[in-house]
Write a structure and sequence with these properties.
The chain is α/β, with parallel strands linked by helices. It has twelve helices and twelve strands. The protein folds into two domains: about 150 residues, 2-Layer Sandwich (Nucleotidyltransferase, domain 5); about 180 residues, Nucleotidyltransferase, domain 5 (2-Layer Sandwich), CATH 3.30.420. The strands form two sheets. It has a seven-stranded mixed sheet, with helices on both faces. A five-stranded mixed sheet has the order 9-8-7-10-11, with helices on both faces. The model has no long low-confidence stretch (mean pLDDT about 95).
Length: about 350
């Protein structure tokens, strides 16, 4: 089975072609600020990004008529079930004209749907950013006006959860796993027998390279009304200027570790505090399954940091064994999820816009 996976980011479009489980090639298409500047909305980038994808496939001398399916990163849709959804006209209309949020992934399904239609093959999204399997009890926040939402790195989280289950020679659907994605934002989730039933989002828990995480609510409320920040600036303090950026002026874990190596004790304190907060998030999620955790999985770009991994593992290994799966596996996750659908191992949902 030949599968094309498409994953747009804010300044790039990543694509890969898989033959069954094997990656044939992967390409990162960069989009300059000047190239993106003319487009007011993500959906407006459709023609530009589609052309870029087709151009690099031609440069690779890849015959798109050999494809069996195309899979796209799931965009900002209303809450969905986990797993695969067949892309249909209702989904593309929602993403083009009324997305739940402006997100780079919104354009992916538009490209996949049109290309697949031209080729007469199916197209899918898999584990969309809005995938929601929270239990009813997990949705309560403490304020009726603010129900908790399922927003996390679900695509990579589910993929590394499945990988870990396979490594441990168990079925994902039979295990309880805590998965933490450590990137520019940090999120954690608990997977109970194949369902992601609860999480710690990037505005509830640990601070990260560029996000503030869960800050003291009363003091934050006072700061909002202190006259120092408008709404946009305050959002930037939470997402973009928080975490390592706020404390140390950089979002680079490599730069922070260089500061620590040079004897900067403030950098060490802040960096270890990030690991400390990750460990607290893991501990809180362990209570969801009453401590019955089979493994803790650490993934994302910061999982390459031996220092961070050692600090986190030292605090949580009493809960369950710690598995480290560095990097992001989003293209692979999309392709392998689609492969399971094509093989009849998993059913695709039908999207309906309510």
């Amino acid at each position: 089975m030949q599968i094309l996976a498409i994953n747009p980011g804010s300044t790039s479009t990543k694509i890969a072609v898989y033959e069954d489980e094997k990656e044939q090639f992967k390409i990162n298409i960069d989009h300059s600020a000047a190239e993106l500047a003319p487009y007011a909305k993500v959906a407006d980038q459709y023609d530009m990004r589609k052309s870029a994808v087709l151009n690099v496939l031609r440069e690779k001398n890849f015959d798109i008529t050999t494809l069996d399916a195309i899979v796209a990163r799931g965009g900002a849709l209303p809450p969905l079930k986990g797993g695969a959804y067949r892309i249909n006209e209702a989904m593309t209309k929602r993403l083009r004209f009324n997305p739940a949020a402006e997100h780079a992934s919104n354009v992916a399904a538009l490209i996949a749907y049109d290309l697949a239609g031209e080729l007469g093959i199916p197209s899918y999204i898999y584990d969309a950013i809005s995938a929601d399997e929270l239990t009813d009890i997990a949705r309560l926040s403490g304020m009726p006006e603010l129900p908790r939402a399922s927003l996390c790195h679900v695509l990579n989280m589910r993929a590394v959860a499945r990988k870990t289950a396979e490594k441990l020679q168990k079925r994902y659907e039979e295990m309880n796993l805590i998965v933490v994605h450590l990137g520019g934002g940090i999120t954690a989730s608990i997977h109970q027998q194949g369902r992601m039933v609860d999480l710690v989002s990037d505005d509830e828990g640990p601070f990260s390279p560029e996000r503030a995480g869960g800050v003291p609510c009363r003091d934050f409320l006072d700061l909002c009304y202190a006259g120092k920040y408008d709404h946009g600036a305050m959002r930037k303090q939470l997402r973009g200027r928080g975490g390592l950026v706020g404390y140390l002026g950089t979002s680079s874990a490599i730069e922070v570790e260089a500061k620590i190596a040079a004897g900067d004790e403030t950098a060490r304190l802040v960096y270890e505090a990030m690991a400390y907060q990750v460990a607290k998030a893991i501990g809180s999620l362990a209570t969801v399954v009453k401590g019955q955790v089979d493994a803790i999985v650490l993934t994302g770009g910061i999982a390459y940091s031996a220092m961070q991994m050692a600090w986190i593992a030292d605090r949580v290994s009493f809960i369950a064994p710690v598995e480290i799966v560095p990097g992001e596996n989003e293209l692979e996750s999309l392709a392998l999820g689609t492969l399971r659908v094509l093989r009849g191992e998993e059913a695709a949902h039908e999207y309906r816009d309510n």
